[in-house]
Specification:
The complex is a heterodimer of chains A (418) and B (122).
Chain A (H helix, E strand, L loop, with lengths): L3 E8 L3 H12 L5 E4 L15 E3 L1 H4 L3 E2 H14 L3 E3 L3 E5 L5 E5 L3 E12 L3 E3 L15 E3 H11 L6 E5 L3 H12 L3 E6 L9 H8 L6 E2 L2 E7 L6 E6 L12 E4 L2 E4 L3 E3 L2 H5 L24 E3 L10 H19 L10 E5 L3 E5 L2 E2 L5 E7 L7 E5 L4 E5 L8 E5 L1 H5 L7 E8 L1
Parallel strand pairs in A: 1-2, 1-8, 2-5, 8-19, 10-17, 11-12, 11-17, 12-13, 20-27
Antiparallel strand pairs in A: 3-4, 6-7, 7-8, 9-18, 14-15, 15-16, 20-22, 21-23, 23-26, 24-25, 24-27
Helix pairs in contact in A: 1-3, 1-8, 4-5, 5-6
Chain B lengths: L1 E3 L8 E7 L2 E6 L5 H11 L2 E2 L2 E7 L5 E6 L3 E2 L3 H9 L2 E3 L7 E3 L9 E3 L11
Parallel strand pairs in B: 5-8
Antiparallel strand pairs in B: 1-2, 2-3, 4-7, 5-6, 6-10, 9-10
Chain lengths: 418, 122
Amino acid sequence: MSDIHVDVAVVGAGPAGVAAGIGAREAGAGRVLVIERDWDLGGILQQCIHPGFGLHTFKEELTGPEYMHRWIERAREAGVEFMTNSMVFGAHPDGSLDVMNPDRGVFRVTSGATVLAMGCRERPLGAINIPGSRPAGIYTAGTAQRFVNMEGYMPGDRAVILGSGDIGLIMARRMIWEGAKVEAVFEIMPWAGGLRRNIAQCLDDYGIPFYLNHSVVRVHGHDRLEGVTVVELDSDRRPVPGSERFVPCDTMLLAVGLIPENELSRMAGAEIHPVTGGPILNELYQTTRPSIFAAGNVVIVYDLADWVSQEGVAAGRNAALYAAGALPEPARRLAIRGGKNVRLFSPHYVTGGADATVYFRVTRPIEKRCRVFADHGLYERRERYARPGEMNEVRLAREALAALPDDVTEIVVDAEEV
Amino acid sequence: MSMICVRCPVGCDIKVTAEGDEVKSVEGNSCPRALEFARDEVRNPTRVFATTVRVSGGRLPVCPVRSRGPAPKSRLFDISREVAGLTVPAPVKIGQVILADACGTGVDIIASRDLEAREVTA
């Protein structure tokens, strides 16, 4: 067991990690190593075989595997090294990593800077408290996606989908294309979780019923799922008496949210934000451990892979600069705060030393003209709507941040009706 | 008629006025892609189709494939059945034609990833 030293180490070879490798090399890092636990590169996009990726980056719509193919080729050309079949099982405050793989056994990777790019996980059944037995046939949408698209078998013949996140909508169509019946999609909230075009092209195209304000309250069946009881919810999210009905099915897919995967971030002592579940960052993608950076869905769950890759490139670049001692010292600390209609946002503070993009999601939809803004007159944009399923961004220019009076310590971002 | 344009993730709500199969006006769009979408939707709705094809001797049992361009929406299930009847030997190269002129639509089905052959263990 011998240690490996690199300039920049990256954990995870999904869209964020591959892009971070490229960003690091382009910023001059000598040895850049991306460590991946799977045998293959590309992360979860390898199972996202539907088109819809890369319109911003490549000006055409690619499938997930095609999108990653292009980024991986770019990374190889840029001289990024990859290590697959390698599990990072420990992370330290200085960014060094405990790794194991079948070739080298257990070893340590030390680095000038580290980028965390572990992505996210799906919220499982246990997290949503549905009573009943635990028969076979209940999967997260992403698990079913892997079964169908990579392992080559169908999870069942007659499905219901709980939650209207994009993966659930995509899987509804996928199951239909493979000859299954999809009874309905049930969403607990009064609005859809996924993109509108996925409601249109995955549900409406195939006449799949979509019920808002509905939830599954019971699962039936002992060995195999036999059906679910669904109920309508009132405006206080309470069941409407008498609205229960039984829907027969042998499969239920859960598309009820994604959670950033941050075991390693915690081990390294990077502070985790209680609401996003991701590390607290500044606009340089730097965690509260200065040599540790983070990008992509490990930070906050993005709508588009394009944004994840873009953030990855930037985080990798800054990690390379840090490793070379060339990242500017923070000038000040300006906290970002979400306004009345904002829950999730990142980064959580800015240093004023660079242009910054703050991403956020509104809590409630605004279906009329609205302004997306940062206060102190830093940014304003008009939009036709603001919806929880679609991330908003505000851009803060370095010059404008530098011109803020010294007594300003906080910047509020929000979207509101005009 | 109102529809949601599916040509990019924005998903504009558009209002399309058509006479017969000719589009007279499109409102509510934020880019020209919606005009093309509306025209196709009125005349001959198309979708890019993605599925998997069975692979023999590959590192995975199936390989993702897609239609090279948009395929007629009314023929997607026919194409799905035709692809389901195929088995392709590994290795598969990205962009490789898996099924030319699927169901006579003129649209090719191509592989959307590289898939190496399975390593043979002694």
